[in-house]
Amino acid sequence: SAMASRRFEKVRPLIGSSPAEVRAGLSYAEFRGAFDSVDDFAGMEGGVRQVATDLSVPMLDGKLEENVARRYQGYLEIPDDDVYLVSLTSDDGSRLVLSGQSLDNDGLHAPVTKTATWALAKGWHRLDLLWFNRTGGSVLKLEVARPGQKAIALRLGH
Question: What 8-state DSSP symbol labels residue 62?
Answer without folding.
Answer: T
